[in-house]
Design a protein that fits this description.
By secondary structure, this protein is α+β, with helices and mostly antiparallel strands. It contains 9 helices and 12 strands. 28% of the residues are buried. One of its GO terms (biological process) is DNA recombination.
């Protein structure tokens, strides 16, 4: 249950639903397995799995939910092979070429025939709502997976006012400054991984793993103008992660001490163990995010990362234009 990826969204309106009310709103969208002709199904399941029946698990004011996505697995290569076989049979029988639209119809027929016998692959996506902190935290490695969960949550609640977490300072500029100094923000220390990009050449990328980030060769790349887009950090000696220019945290790893702290709780069953893990994890993430947002200059005013980048680019262009005009004069 310990989250491995953090995609954080900021609540722009007060979230005042109780766990009971949230559970009631999610029930109409409870997960139902794929039928014979369903390509995919998405719905809510108990975060406790077979050890629970409620669709919302509440601890210390945090509300955990879990979405299940089930998809029929039909290899594209197998489908294409069958389509070509049928197209070839038609071509030989009727002495004509099979067009693109007809091939698409053949593909639909093949999928219709194969879907009932296809294997179903299921994935669980966890998230929790932190009303007091004003955050929704999704355990997802991709933005699309996080947005899918939020979209279904929005449908269940009729409304969910959230925006991606942004910062007042442009993340890549802040991280570049830290590593150039080199000095990590308060309560943080550098990890052993980073990704550098040339702002003038999107194809120029340097990825460093298991490296001393304060080494001279990395410093030289930064002096040459490259910027940090991903940076490995360790917070408070207890949580290791990689933060990127969109403020998403990946490969989150909680220290053995924190996991043991949760394990040491007097838990008599799986539900109580889950509760202990959830309690320790959310408290640590809350403190971590507070420090991380502060390190980037505070939370942004609702602008997306793309908007912040655009503003920074415009500022750089205006500054360049002013310098050119000064030289011309």
């Amino acid at each position: 249950m310990w989250f491995k990826n953090l995609r954080v969204y900021r609540l722009t309106k007060e979230f005042d639903l109780t766990a009971e009310k949230l559970n009631e709103l999610l029930e109409p969208q409870a997960f139902v397995p794929c039928g014979s002709q369903d390509a995919a199904r998405y719905g809510w399941v108990p975060p406790l799995g077979r050890h629970g029946s409620e669709l919302v698990h509440a601890t210390n004011g945090y509300l955990m939910v879990c979405a299940k996505k089930q998809e029929k697995v039909i290899p594209a290569g197998v489908v294409n092979e069958k389509v070509e076989e049928r197209a070839q049979a038609i071509s030989e029988k009727e002495h004509r070429q099979v067009g693109r639209k007809e091939k698409q119809n053949l593909k639909d027929e093949v999928l219709l025939e194969m879907r009932p016998k296809a294997f179903a692959r299921s994935r669980l996506h966890y998230a929790y709502i932190a009303p007091r902190d004003g955050w929704v935290v999704v355990d997802a490695s991709s933005a699309s997976a996080a947005e899918e969960l939020l979209e279904h949550l929005r449908e269940a609640l009729s409304s969910l006012a959230v925006i991606p977490l942004s910062a007042k300072n442009l993340p890549q500029q802040a991280m570049t400054h830290w590593l150039t100094a080199p000095e990590a923000p308060a309560r943080f220390e550098f990890g052993h991984e980073c990704e550098l990009r040339d702002p003038k050449d999107s194809g120029s990328v340097i990825r460093c793993k298991n490296q001393d980030l304060c080494a001279e060769e990395i410093h030289n790349h930064l002096v040459a103008g490259m910027q940090v887009h991903k940076l490995g950090l360790v917070w408070n000696g207890g949580v290791e992660f990689v933060v990127d220019h969109q403020l998403s945290l990946k490969r989150v790893k909680f220290s053995d001490e924190l996991v043991e702290k949760a394990d040491s709780a007097d838990s008599e069953n799986a539900a109580q163990r889950f509760d202990a893990d959830f309690s320790v994890m959310t408290l640590e993430i809350s403190a971590l995010l507070t420090d991380l947002v502060a390190a980037f200059g505070g939370a942004g005013e609702g602008a997306s990362v793309e908007e912040i980048v655009a503003r920074a680019n415009r500022a750089e262009q205006d500054q360049l234009a002013a310098e050119v005009e000064e030289v011309m004069l």
